[in-house]
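Reopening this one. Same input as before:
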Amino acid sequence: MTNPLSFLVIILPKKNRKKQLYIDYQKLNSIIEKDIYLLHLIEEVLEAFQSA
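Same output, byte for byte:
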């Protein structure tokens, strides 16, 4: 039995012989509930804080 929040981790060698860590989040992303609210523009948020 595997955990539904688990993800695939692979360590592969790069051309310069160093190791590179690869993480596959596709399974995790498929079960995450998406937000329906849009994020505010950072400029609008900063302006709101400056005027407060």
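So the earlier flakiness isn't reproducible anymore. For the record, Residues 8-51 form one domain.
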